[in-house]
Design goal:
471 residues, alpha+beta, Arc Repressor Mutant, subunit A, three-stranded antiparallel sheet, 19 helices, 8% strand
């Protein structure tokens, strides 16, 4: 049985200007130039010619006011310039570097070996099967099957092993290893046979699990060596490269991006904090003569084709208006948000003392600015500020709070800093356990549980006490 009824729903739709603004707010300054460039290329009523470089000519575009455009169907003639140009007409933010491909480097070395065409193809396949870090993590059987099915190359595990040993002689040393132990042993293979090298090879070959777990006493006992000999061997191992593939970038056009700050904070001689944003040239909105003629003609004709063309031009002008207004709103939103963060963390921004950072979350700044939390999140994302004590991502200034022994709320960043200092200053022959760290942190005024210590230790990349042990 079918029923028919009416249902009223209230739906909120974002305007084109709101959508444009949201998109630009989350765009960092290094990408903003390209966004403007794309808009200029796609919209004929936007122009980036510098006013001083333009000659008066009938063929030149007419300036159009974005503020006088009405939605009443009437399309008047306009004459108003929007001049927001900064000192640099087209600042360039990205640098590019071209590096030799990791795969190509190994393939070139393969070509210098005396191999049959068949062996060369097997070698090329193995090189192409290496991970980005230079390891071969596939078993020989699956490699042989893959070569047979995909490229009709008949081979076996014995030949694959023989070709792989050839590749393992290539630069960078350690490439083609199947695990970390083999990678390190390959690098020791070409070293002078000194005592520390011989001991290092023995440790990696025969006692690798004990070495990874830092069971140093067991290794000394079984190898019948003293502490100094073990320390020399461990030092030699620590200088080896566990990531040989990282030495050569696997990209012909690797883009090396610079960190370009969206904000600059200066400390005045009177102790005042002065925030500025790098000026970005806003494009001018104007209509070229052929488009303005269409707009003029539409006012005095009933020709549907002319009217249709005028509607298209009007749409492009509206789009340009929204884009320029969105750029302005982006600037105002970012500036207001950053100024609020600076005011909130005023004491920290004076000298960069991390202990002065207050607990601060997105909700705090949203409440102070009146912006939505999602807007604050977009502002913070991928943005940087240059201060008199360094360049920082905006996310750096946000952290949760934790009570100290006096009942005061302190930033978890201060806790992490204190924890890092304790670990850095500990006796590495007897590293502090999590329970001992709890006691030491309490002595510093932090009231923390053992699980909290473990949580922040993991976040800081600090290993457990047993794995931090050194000779």
């Amino acid at each position: 049985m079918l029923k028919q009824g009416l249902e009223i729903k209230q739906q909120q739709k974002l305007s084109p200007l709101q959508i444009q603004t949201i998109r630009l707010i989350e765009t960092p300054i290094v990408e903003l130039a390209q966004a403007v460039r794309n808009e200029l290329d796609n919209n004929p009523v936007l122009d980036d010619d510098h006013p001083s470089d333009r000659k008066e000519d009938d063929d030149q575009p007419k300036d159009v006011s974005i503020d006088e455009i009405k939605d009443d169907g009437e399309i008047p003639t306009y004459k108003l310039r929007v001049n927001n140009w900064g000192k640099d007409e087209r600042p360039e933010y990205n640098t590019f570097s071209v590096k030799e491909s990791f795969t190509q480097s190994l393939t070139d070395q393969l070509g210098f070996r005396q191999l049959t065409p068949h062996e060369y193809e097997v070698g090329k396949f193995l090189i192409g099967s290496l991970d980005e870090d230079g390891y071969l993590r596939r078993d020989f059987a699956s490699l042989a099957d893959d070569m047979a099915f995909r490229f009709n190359i008949e081979t076996d595990e014995v030949e694959i092993g023989r070709i792989l040993r050839i590749i393992q002689d290539f630069e960078p040393v350690g490439v083609g290893a199947r695990d970390l132990r083999e990678c390190l042993l390959l690098q020791l293979r070409g070293c002078e046979r000194t005592e520390d090298v011989v001991h290092a090879e023995t440790i990696l070959r025969d006692y690798f699990p004990d070495f990874a777990s830092k069971h140093f006493q067991k290794i000394m006992s079984r190898m019948n060596i003293d502490k100094e000999q073990l320390r020399a061997a461990v030092t030699r191992i620590s200088k080896l490269n566990p990531n040989p593939g990282g030495q050569v970038d696997d990209s012909y056009s690797d883009q090396a991006q610079q960190v370009v700050p969206d904000f600059v904070l200066d400390l005045g001689p009177d102790g005042s904090l002065n925030l500025s944003m790098p000026r970005f040239p806003l494009p001018e909105v104007k209509v070229k003569k052929k488009y303005s003629d269409i707009l003029d003609a539409a006012k005095t004709t009933n020709d549907p084709k002319v009217k249709e063309a005028a509607v298209f031009v009007k749409q492009r002008v509206d789009s340009a208006k929204w884009f320029v207004e969105a750029l302005k709103q982006r600037h105002n939103t970012l500036q207001t948000t950053m100024q609020t963060i600076i005011d909130f963390q005023h004491d920290y921004f004076i000298d960069g003392d991390e202990s002065k950072l207050k607990p601060m979350v997105l909700k705090d700044i949203a409440a102070l600015t009146g912006f939505d939390i999602s807007t604050i999140s977009r502002v913070v994302s991928s943005k940087y500020i240059e201060t008199h004590f360094g360049i920082f991502p905006l996310k750096y200034f946000f952290s949760e709070g934790l009570e100290n022994q006096d009942g005061e709320e302190v930033s978890t960043r201060g806790l992490k800093r204190a924890l890092q200092e304790l670990v850095d200053g500990e006796d590495k022959s007897k590293p502090l356990t999590d329970d001992q760290l709890v006691t030491e942190m309490e002595a510093k005024g932090f009231k923390v549980a053992r699980r909290t210590i473990a949580k922040y230790r993991d976040q800081l990349g600090i290993a457990k006490a047993r794995l931090r042990k050194e000779l």
